[in-house]
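Appendix B. One record, verbatim.
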Amino acid sequence: MSEELLQNTDKHGHKKIKICISGAAETGFCGPNALELAKGLGREIVSQGCILVTGATTGFPLWSAMGAKEVGGISIGLSPAISEKEHVQTYKLPIDYMDLIIYTGFGYPMRDILLVRSSDALIIGCGRIGTIHEFTVAFEDGKPIGILEGEWDMAGELRDILEKGHRPNAKIIFDKDPKNLVKRLIEMVKKDKIEEFSLTKHAPDGTELK
């Protein structure tokens, strides 16, 4: 293996930040611009060099996946179903606009935990109870959380939860602009990134070279 290849740290996949979009599968109550804002989030995640992760569902997450694919990005979905057949026939969920679907077989509650823990950060748009669940998982796990403010109630509801929860959290940000929200969230994620495991600094058995 050449020295040049060993030093090419750009090939290390963990440098790609994975941002999860959490939002309602049914968006009739979200306002007329909700789906376009979801697409805008998907486009921004990809345009700013990240990978989109969703719960492989309809509504807000699906439209964010559409936006990601519009600009040639990678879209990963974590399904509550155990198989593609169950995903489509039982859960009535789409398989479009996703490069990879992971079939967890854990239903929605446990899927939410895997979804959040598979991501570096969480962005919340218009949502319902399931979105609040994903928010609380991310909160407890110490994940950076970006909350997109729009014509929906979710941002206000989460502000209320934070105020009455009596637990300060410096990793939660609010913003009305998708581009700025993604940028701020990426900056927060990068603060927790560790130095890469370079083959030029370690022996074949993994021990660090002096």
